[in-house]
Design goal:
With 158 residues, this protein is mainly α. The protein has one domain. It is 80% helix and 0% strand. It contains 4 helices and no strands. α1 packs antiparallel against α2. It is elongated.
Length: 158
């Protein structure tokens, strides 16, 4: 890539990755608000808002982060399989994206049930807490790998 293309790709990757991290923090905050509230309407609203946040914010940012990360790895000296930190970051991002895409079914299920309910606690917020907390931890690990770039070449380094 030319320097301009590399900077553009890096900007897109950092922006989408930071956005994904921020969206997960928002999802976690919503979950905590629902778990700590005694107001059935707030709990009900958390279930209803979680679905569009997941589908229209978190999923697109996760896919953009994965795609732009691949572009960065393939288009720069870091390579996709050259450095362990890049490979680990790729594997963690693919894992997180697959889990997210599977978990969207659960979020959509709870949103559909909540849409027909009168605000009762459906019990899914503990699952939301587990998944968003795990996602936050994983995204912080990938961010740390990006910043510190631990040394070590894979056996496939050229």
């Amino acid at each position: 890539m030319t320097p301009g293309q590399r900077k553009f790709a890096l900007t897109a990757h950092v922006t989408s990755s930071a956005g994904w991290l921020g969206a997960v923090v928002v999802f976690l905050a919503l979950t905590i608000a629902g778990l700590s509230s005694q107001d059935a309407e707030i709990v009900h609203a958390v279930y209803l808002v979680a679905e569009p946040v997941t589908w229209f914010v978190i999923v697109p940012l996760a896919l953009a982060s994965l795609l732009t990360g691949l572009v960065q790895a393939l288009g720069t000296r870091w390579g996709l399989f050259r450095h362990y930190w890049v490979l680990f970051k790729l594997l963690l991002t693919v894992f997180a994206t697959v889990v997210l895409l599977q978990y969207t079914q659960t979020v959509s299920y709870y949103a559909a049930v909540a849409a027909g309910a009168d605000g009762a606690n459906l019990g899914g917020l503990w699952s939301y807490l587990l998944h968003s907390g795990g996602a936050l931890l994983l995204l912080l690990v990938t961010t740390t790998l990006s910043v510190y770039k631990p040394q070590g070449l894979t056996p496939w380094a050229a």
